[in-house]
Amino acid sequence: MALNLFRKLFSSTDERAAVAPLYAAIIAEARQPHWYLDGKVADTIDGRFDMINAVLALVLARMEGLGEAAHMPSTLLAETFVNDMDGQLRELGIGDIVVGKHIGKMMAALGGRLGAYREGFRPGGNPRAALLRNLYRGEDPGEPALDHVQGALVALVDRLAQQTLADLLAGQLGDA
Asked: Cβ contacts of residue 62 below 8 Å, gap of 6+?
């Protein structure tokens, strides 16, 4: 256990490079204009963060279903997210003293959203409730927007279900 924690904290950039195509695909998916135009996700720093979290959580949930072979890549993917968010916060001018607190909050948000989206997007789940609480932060965007985002994320889950670990690591989220 301690070795796993040590590995998580000090894994090399070379190891994280293995998940770089997947992380790039997640970011590209989360930046698609339709989320913000048709889905009315807030086109703000928080809204973009929430959209990245939604896509990342669904990918991580898929990786959970791929078994032990996906454990280390999923850990490296989460590390890549943390490193990216750290850099983004620093670009915004947030200093060293406060960055750690923000990263802690972001990781807690990811963990909470992973659970909410895992439950919401499972067969028989309630994705609307998860989306309203986590993506829209309690603000109702209206039925057309919610229908759009829910439909697009359900389609993403379906596409992800068809992807192998090798496909995902190659940055393939499935054909849109």
From this structure: 157, 160, 161, 163, 168
Task: Specify the length of the chain in residues.
Answer: 176
User: Are 47 and 33 contacting, i.e. CB atoms less than 8 angstroms apart?
Assistant: no
Q: If you compute the radius of gyration of the chain from its CA atoms, what whole number of angstroms results? A: 16
Q: For residue 78, what are its two tokens?
A: 């989460």
Q: Is the pLDDT of residue 5 over 50?
A: no
pLDDT digit string, tens, across residues 118-149: 999 998 999 999 999 999 998 999 999 999 99
Task: Report the C-alpha gap between 126 and 103 in whole angstroms.
Answer: 28
Cα separation, 120 vs 125, whole angstroms: 4
Pairwise CA distance, residues 51 & 128, whole Å: 15
Q: Is the pLDDT of residue 6 over 50?
A: no
Q: What share of the chain is helix, strand, coil (3-state, %, to 5)?
A: 75, 0, 25
